[in-house]
């Protein structure tokens, strides 16, 4: 089974703001790597055999690849929008497939049960109809017209609101979420999940946000998002099988799983199989 398709992708390997000359040792798809700043203060990533790996610094993170990326890192236009606050949430290590971490982020139905009284609440458990597509020109998975009642949609929200979401998967281990921005209804808050595959069943998750919120303290914004993801981690680490099944017969989807179905189909189409289980065992 070739893994070249995923080897040639860009992956987050650290927060640029936390880098120093001493660097940090980490891993990418099973290979030890080191992320540091060079003498000029630029990010540098070195492979286990000493080879210098490709580097980009974007969205507060250092990105690298074990292969030769055939395209630039995906754009997030809101990252260049004046007036937004950019939140480096930090990192959460999760014992699960990097693909499982992304798919969980795409799952709306779990809000009332996992994020009770924050992102969802009973009896508001029904997932309304929404639209899912694989956009051929961008080669991305999109879910739009997603609406869900939330007791506290964001740190800036006061009281429950029906929140609208758009989900976007621009790379196999990254997802971008656009959601209702309570202080500015004409804009979207942007919450991303950048996943670093350490191994097929272990990953570091780097959430990042671009928000219109001038009121909330930065530590509160970070704590709010970390609280949400730590609730997810307990679910992710208990999923069986640990790898993401790509055989349609291995798990029974429901109407709420349209985004997941499209994501799995897209992964198979591109042979993005690192962290996936292809056949039932």
TrEMBL record:
An example Gene Ontology molecular-function term: dioxygenase activity
Domain Vanillate O-demethylase oxygenase-like C-terminal catalytic residues, every copy: 94-269
InterPro entries named in the record: Cholesterol_7-desaturase (IPR050584), VanA_C_cat (IPR044043)
Matches recorded under SUPFAM superfamilies: Bet v1-like
A Pfam family it matches: VanA_C
Record key words, sorted: Dioxygenase, Oxidoreductase
Annotated protein name in UniProt: Aromatic ring-hydroxylating dioxygenase subunit alpha
Lineage, top ranks: Bacteria, Pseudomonadati, Pseudomonadota, Alphaproteobacteria, Hyphomicrobiales
């Amino acid at each position: 089974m070739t893994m070249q398709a995923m080897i040639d992708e860009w992956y987050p390997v650290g927060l640029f703001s936390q880098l120093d000359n001493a660097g940090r040792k980490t891993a990418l798809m099973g290979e030890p790597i080191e992320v540091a700043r060079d003498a000029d203060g630029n990010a540098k990533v070195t492979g286990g055999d000493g080879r210098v790996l490709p580097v980009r610094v974007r969205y507060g993170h250092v990105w690298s690849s074990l292969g030769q990326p055939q395209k630039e890192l995906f754009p997030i236009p809101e990252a260049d929008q004046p007036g937004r606050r950019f939140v480096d949430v930090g990192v959460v290590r999760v014992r699960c497939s990097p693909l499982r971490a992304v798919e969980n982020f795409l799952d709306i139905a779990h809000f009332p049960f996992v994020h009770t009284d924050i992102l969802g609440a009973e009896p508001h458990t029904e997932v309304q109809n929404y639209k899912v597509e694989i956009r051929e020109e961008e080669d991305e998975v999109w879910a739009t017209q997603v609406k869900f009642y939330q007791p506290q949609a964001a740190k800036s929200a006061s009281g429950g609101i029906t929140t609208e979401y758009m989900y976007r998967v621009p790379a196999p281990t990254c997802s971008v979420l656009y959601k209702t921005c309570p202080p500015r209804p004409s804009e979207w808050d942007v919450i991303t999940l950048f996943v670093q595959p350490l191994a097929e069943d272990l990953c570091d998750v780097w959430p990042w946000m671009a928000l219109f919120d001038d009121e909330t303290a930065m530590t509160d914004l970070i704590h709010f998002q970390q609280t949400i993801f730590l609730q997810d981690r307990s679910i992710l680490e208990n999923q069986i099988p640990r790898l993401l099944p790509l055989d349609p017969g291995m798990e029974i989807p429901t109407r709420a799983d349209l985004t997941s179905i499209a994501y799995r189909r897209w992964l198979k189409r591109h042979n993005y199989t690192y962290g996936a289980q292809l056949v039932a065992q």
